[in-house]
Write a structure and sequence with these properties.
Number of strands: 15
Largest sheet: 5 strands, antiparallel
Shape: rod-shaped
Strand content: 15-25%
Number of helices: 21
Radius of gyration: 64 Å
Structural class: alpha+beta
Helix content: 40-55%
Distance between the termini: 170 Å
Length: 526
């Protein structure tokens, strides 16, 4: 009767937890409204059913059955259980099973109270997921209050200082970083964040474990449930490698700019609209224009005299995708005209699409002018060569005539000697006494030399001989002795010997075993 009292019923049904009373025979004796909602049954359907038919679980029929355990001496049991709700979702409950006894203390059943902890479990799961995310992050994360006291840090943050999370929580920023870096870098940025705005900055920090690192720091306001700022969240990202890479890239860019602007060539980039995108210092100097008057302008604006010619070459490269090389073309800059040799290649973007051309031009003005001068010189030389060839022909004709006249003269001379001189010489020889006959022989040989110019050959090869030495040479060649020569010139034989030695020196055979007679006869044979 007391189970049906109105007062107890109201209390039983007012609780937010599901409740069921089970007797020792595992029959459902009573349930409240919340329990009926949990199992999707009405009270009348549930009462009288076996407990496992109302709320089946893994412990039913086993030693873990709460009723069996209480019958075996337990007074209170708590455990978790999952249940599929009427809408199909899975719910988690904490079940508290308490012994139910009569006034005599005899066990008459149990009361089970079901508390839905699904949201709490989900919150714990989300909290665990957040913890995993924070712990696995390579960024240094921390939560600080408005007084710059650490409320929480992740492992990366703590490891940078060689501390554990617990060793950092509760400490202040000046304690960790020092007063100088706190006052000059951290505090000014953090105070902006405490005003409710996100703050980002980059700076160098010196960490006990990591050493000097370049960090990208973000401060985000930490808002309470009333939307008031209670502190700030720190996200520190180590970008030292990126910073070093950027510095290296900047140095390389500077080096490339130095090379780009130092090479003895004119280099330029043009887009498909014929505009100069970039030019090097060589082109700026040659054009005699400021860089800003070239870059962004078309060739028709900067070099109008030959712009159409340049543009047609550009289009050929852009449309074909094939480089065009060794283009020799004029470049008019102010009052000066230069000659350049240009190579043009396609200018492609990262996807390989042609977006313009790249040009390399060498100033060949001096070479061009030298080629023109050489061409003119060659024309003059060709004309002179033709003239010389004509003169050579005439000279050959004159020399031929001279040689013919010479031969005719020699023949005439030989004929006259044979007809006139030789008969007279024979008469003289016949009339000379025995001692003077050699004079006739000398005369005959001298006459032979007139017809065969041995002496002339000797004079040509030895211009340092005196006339008397030439006479002695002729006599020696004909076999005369020094005594005979001395008799002709009315001098001593010793004087002739000295003259012969002097002749050997001038002929270059002094001190050798060369015979003077043989040497002079060899001159004749040559």
């Amino acid at each position: 009767n007391r189970f049906n009292s109105a007062q107890w019923e109201r209390i039983f049904n007012s609780t937010a937890n599901g409740m069921i009373i089970i007797d020792t025979q595992y029959r459902t004796k009573h349930v409240n409204d919340r329990f009926c909602e949990m199992i999707g049954m009405s009270r009348d359907e549930a009462i009288g059913q076996k407990c496992r038919e109302c709320f089946p679980s893994k412990s039913c029929g086993t030693d873990n059955c709460p009723l069996k355990r209480i019958i075996n001496g337990k007074d209170l049991i708590e455990f978790e259980v999952e249940k599929e709700s009427p809408d199909g979702s899975r719910l988690t409950y904490i079940v508290s099973a308490t012994a139910l006894r009569d006034d005599a203390g005899v066990l008459i059943g149990i009361i089970e109270c079901f508390t839905n902890i699904t949201r709490h479990m989900e919150a714990e799961e989300h909290m665990w997921q957040y913890k995993c995310i924070v712990s696995s992050s390579n960024d240094m994360l921390a939560l600080l209050d408005k007084n710059f006291v650490y409320l929480a840090v992740n492992e990366k943050y703590a490891e940078a200082f060689g501390k554990t999370n617990r060793e950092l929580v509760g400490r202040t920023v000046p304690d960790v970083f020092g007063d100088t870096i706190f006052e000059t870098v951290i505090r000014p940025n953090a105070e902006k964040c405490l005003q409710g705005i996100e703050v980002r900055y980059q700076d160098w920090f010196d960490f006990p474990i990591l050493g000097k690192r370049f960090m990208e720091i973000t401060y985000d306001p930490y808002l309470g449930s009333d939307n008031s700022t209670r502190g700030f969240v720190v996200n520190g990202r180590d970008i030292t490698e990126r910073k070093q890479a950027e510095e290296m890239q900047e140095r390389q860019k500077e080096e490339l700019d130095i090379i780009f602007n130092s090479v003895p060539a004119l280099i330029f980039y043009k887009d498909k609209e014929n505009r100069f995108i970039r030019v090097n210092q060589g082109l700026v100097d040659t054009a005699g224009l400021p860089r800003e008057q070239i870059e962004g302008k078309t060739a028709f604006e900067t070099f109008p005299e030959n712009a159409e010619r340049y543009w047609q070459d550009d289009l050929e490269v852009i449309n074909s995708g094939v480089p065009k090389r060794n283009i020799v073309e004029p470049l008019v800059a102010g009052d000066d005209t230069y000659w350049v040799q240009t190579d043009k290649i396609p200018y492609r973007d990262s996807a390989g699409n042609i977006i313009g051309i790249i040009g390399f031009s060498l100033d060949i003005t001096a070479r061009k002018r030298a080629e023109e001068q050489l061409h003119k010189t060659n024309e003059v030389l060709a004309a002179e060569r033709s003239m010389l060839e004509s003169k050579n022909v005439a000279l050959k004709e004159v020399l031929g005539q001279i040689e013919t006249q010479k031969q005719e003269t020699e023949q005439l001379l030989q004929s006259n000697v044979n007809r006139i001189v030789q008969p007279l010489l024979q008469i003289i020889t016949d009339r000379l006494s025995g001692d003077d006959e050699h004079l006739a022989g000398l005369l005959r040989r001298a006459l032979g030399d007139l017809l065969e110019p041995t002496i002339g050959k000797l004079e040509e090869s030895h211009t340092n001989l005196s006339p008397r030495e030439f006479e002695i040479c002729n006599m020696v060649r004909q076999g005369w002795t020094s005594k005979q020569i001395a008799g002709v010139f009315c001098t001593s034989e010793g004087t002739v010997e000295q003259q012969r030695k002097k002749i050997r020196r001038k002929l270059g055979i002094a001190g050798t075993k060369t015979n003077l007679v043989s040497h002079l006869q060899a001159v004749k044979s040559k």
